[in-house]
Amino acid sequence: MISKFKQIFKDEWKDIFEIYKNFILSAGAQANDNLLLAFLEVGASLGERLFSIPAERFVEIGCGMAIPSLSLVKLGHKNVTAIDIEPKILSYAEAISKAAKCQLDLQCYDIFEKRPKLENNDMLIAEKPLSYKKAPLEVEYMIMNWCKIERYDFTLIPSVLKKDTIDSYSERCEKYQRRAKQVGFKVENKQACDQLPYRWLIAVKWSKSL
């Protein structure tokens, strides 16, 4: 199967990969090239899937390298914002954006202090959301509750926790899916790529269909 990442960024993927790899090394982490490409595949596959949903605007929070947002822009979406609290991470995201020849609106602030303003026909994206203030599960619950109350469609790729097995992670995704369906969302629960267990939950209710 053709890599979505290499397909979307067919002329730039090698440069993007090197920037991404340099960031991982600068953070003191270790990963082989195949694993890094798999992480990039998760974001690119999600971006491709979201591109088919007619949202007016996509807002990615805790964006990191912002691969889903960059994929949306590369595919032709004109209204995409990516937000992160860490300037260093955003500097790498900006470098990737330039390498990919994408015009992406990158913003630096703490969403716990200043929530981004969305409209009902926008979609919030949170890929493996983390925070130095809150535990991952707390962040995931907060995002879902926020979207339910404020009437936003959302996409969530839950983080894989150290204690997770493939089964427990899948069960948590199914629990999130049930809770969203209980309040009227249509939810797509799908594995993001073959190499990693991450699943996306695309929840739409207010103005779009899956």
Structure description:
The chain is 44% helix and 18% strand. By secondary structure, the protein is an alpha/beta fold. It has a single domain, classed as Vaccinia Virus protein VP39 (Rossmann fold, 3-Layer(aba) Sandwich). Strands 3-2-1-4-5-7-6 form a 7-stranded mixed sheet, with helices on both faces. The longest helix is centred in the N-terminal third of the chain and has 19 residues, at 33-51. The protein is globular. The protein starts with a helix and ends in a 6-residue tail after the last strand. The mean pLDDT is 93.
Q: What structural class do the secondary elements suggest? A: alpha/beta
Count the DSSP helices: 7
Can you list the strand order of the major beta sheet?
3-2-1-4-5-7-6
How would you spell out the order of helices and strands?
A: HHHEHEHEEHEHEE
What's the number of domains? 1
Task: Give the CATH superfamily.
Answer: Vaccinia Virus protein VP39
Helix content: 40-55%
User: In whole angstroms, how far apart are the ends?
Assistant: 24 Å
Extract low-pLDDT stretches: none
- CATH top level label: Alpha Beta
Large-scale geometry: globular
Label this structure with key terms.
210 residues, Rossmann fold, alpha/beta
